[in-house]
Amino acid sequence: MFKGTPQEQYEAIFRWRDQDGDGKITKEELYHSLKHTMKAAQKMIDCSMPHLMQTKGVDGAKKLKTLVDSWNEETKLREFVEQLCATADQDSGGTITFQEFQAFVDKTPGWMDVFQQVQQAKK
């Protein structure tokens, strides 16, 4: 987990995704951020396959791997980014502002965990 107040955590995560520092996250910036997330998830699943086969069974482990692998397909990931941006971009401005980012994460707190994990993996 990040240190600092919740506000400081939001700001740190937002700044990391706002690659050009203009105060907005574009679809392309979000795509690259999520691409890193999915690559990390794929590596984690690959390393965990023996354990997953024991706990989920062979079929369950293969289904999970197939699902995670599918999110690494560019077309599917781009479709997901489009859906995510359509939800988070409240003013339909084509980018996600800090306020929109914070409102989106507040409504879907699981995203904060995802963003934090990817940030930590990049260190």
How do you describe this structure in short?
The protein has 123 residues and is mainly alpha-helical.
- Helical proportion? over 70%
Residues in β-strands, percent: under 5%
Strands of the widest sheet, in order across it, are 1-2
Reading the helices and strands in chain order gives HEHHEHH
Please summarize the sheet with the most strands.
2 strands, antiparallel
Shape estimate? globular
Low-confidence stretches: none
Q: Count the beta strands.
A: 2
* Radius of gyration from the alpha-carbon trace, in angstroms: 16 Å
Structural class, from secondary structure content?
Answer: mainly alpha
What is the number of helices?
A: 5
Descriptors:
2 strands; globular; single chain; mainly alpha; 123 residues; 5 helices
Question: In words, what does this structure look like?
Answer:
The protein has helices spanning 6-17, 27-70, 74-88, 98-107, 110-122, and strands spanning 24-25, 96-97. By secondary structure, the chain is mainly alpha-helical. It has a two-stranded antiparallel ribbon with strand order 1-2. α2 (27-70) crosses α3 (74-88) and α2 packs across α5. The protein is globular and about 45 Å long. 13% of the residues are buried.
